[in-house]
Amino acid sequence: MIDVDDTTTRKPADRLSDIGLLFHRLNNQLGIILANAELLETKAGDEMSRARASQVVASVLDAMATAREIRTHSK
Fold first, then answer.
1. How far from 57 is each of 3, 22, 27, 49, 64, CA to CA, in Å?
2. Contact between 72 and 21 (Cβ < 8 Å)
3. Calpha distance 35→51 (Å, rounded)
4. Residue 22: inside a domain
5. Mind listing the pLDDT tens digit for each residue in 59-69?
6. Which domain holds residue 20?
7. pTM of this prediction?
8. Into how many domains does the chain fold?
9. How far is Cα 20 from Cα 74, in angstroms, rounded to an integer?
10. C-alpha closest to that of 73 among 8, 11, 23, 14
């Protein structure tokens, strides 16, 4: 695990590498949430449940886009 406090004393190249690893981990976690929300969306038995799952899907996609944008600007 990366120690966030340690990133302030490291070389810029090392910090960028650490940030890349953090974004990779975040993307993996968001991908798992997305896959499960999409599964719920297709398997939901009622419209309210499908709508809620759809909101989760949209939010995760937005979070993934935001993470991608932050990563781009941090380079």
1. 30, 22, 14, 12, 11
2. no
3. 16
4. yes
5. 999 999 999 89
6. 11-74
7. 0.72
8. 1
9. 10
10. 23
